[in-house]
Specification:
The chain is an alpha/beta fold and about 300 residues long. The protein is about 45% helix and about 25% strand. The protein binds 2-phosphoglycolic acid.
């Protein structure tokens, strides 16, 4: 059988509409051109595909079989086209990501892993605090955000993928450094180095202390976890930070986690984007990557969000 895609396309339209006139309109062809394509197709198949009764045309049994196969072939072609388009989009593409200051370390690690699998990707990574990040998403400036618990907002798609425990850190020579089971009230008179207003860590810490009717003094306010860690190491007070920011300091014994009752404050990491955002193939691939690999990268400690 020597048939062309064009013949199949014309046949599919005539068989579906059971009318040469309508098929020719749909295909923007003249009616004789449509008849000619069908005639050639019937010559190739060697069997009539339509029969005429009065002014109407009907599919013969062979025509019905052919209709079934022509539809399958055109669906397969459409699918192939879609897959190839996606692959084209995946080979190159831009990714606009914004992450909470605290998520910076592991988000950068995840991006590096993703980059190895998608060499054509260009990433623009913004590291900022929660408040600013929410403004960026609302203004549709970024594809995807990685942040602490997002606000309840029907316009946002939010997916939690990992734990984010907040702990109390001290320098190793702090008087509480080696105590076990420190009751919460002992923090009452302690001085803290805290994150800036608008930080998710700061809000969670404040909420936690308020819930426990605890008043703590803050000696200094800083908009970088790095600065907090330095200040705590220098003995300027205690800090409340995400466990994901202190891996190195714990290893090198420059900071210790205090064993305080009711800690850690359990937060979670979320991947967030606007509901109506049409994620490009690269952004979609990054989303799937975070939701699968991100889960593996950060082991779950369990526990509910506070
Ligand atoms: P932050 O966000 O870096 O703004 O503190 C982290 C969080 O929301 O837990």
């Amino acid at each position: 059988m020597n048939i062309t895609f064009r013949q199949l396309e014309v046949f599919e339209a005539v068989a579906r509409l059971l009318s040469y006139t309508q098929a020719s309109k749909e295909l923007h062809l003249s009616q004789p051109a449509v008849s000619m394509q069908i005639k050639q197709l019937e010559e190739s198949t060697g069997i009539p595909l339509f029969e005429k009764m009065g002014r109407k045309i009907y599919l013969t049994e062979a025509g019905r079989e052919m209709y079934h196969y022509s539809r399958t072939i055109s669906h397969q072609l459409e699918e192939a086209e879609e897959v190839l388009e996606q692959l084209k989009g995946l080979q190159t593409g831009k990714l606009e990501i914004t992450v909470a200051t605290t998520a910076n370390a592991f988000a950068t690690r995840m991006l590096a892993m993703f980059n190895k699998q998608h060499v054509g990707v260009t990433v623009s990574l913004d590291v900022t605090n929660r408040e600013h990040l929410l403004r960026q998403i609302a203004a549709n400036e970024k594809d995807i955000a990685i942040m602490g618990r997002p606000p309840e907002d029907a316009d946002l798609v939010t997916e939690s993928f990992a734990d984010n425990p907040l702990v109390v850190v001290a320098s190793p020579d702090h008087p509480l450094a080696h105590e076990k089971h420190i009751p919460l009230y002992r923090l009452q008179n302690q001085t803290f180095v805290v994150r800036e207003q608008g930080s998710g860590t700061r809000t969670a810490m404040q909420r936690f202390f308020d819930q426990h009717n605890l008043r703590v003094t803050s000696s200094m306010e800083m908009n970088e976890n790095e600065a907090i860690k330095q200040a705590v190491q220098a003995g300027m007070g205690l800090g409340v930070v995400s466990i994901h920011t202190i891996e190195l300091e714990l290893e090198t014994n420059r900071l210790v986690i205090l064993d305080v009752e009711d800690f850690p404050i359990m937060r979670h990491w979320y991947l967030v984007h606007r509901r109506e955002k049409r994620l490009a193939p690269m952004a979609q691939a990054f989303k799937s990557f975070v939701l699968t690999e991100g889960r593996k990268l950060i082991p779950s400690l369990g526990g509910n969000e506070k």
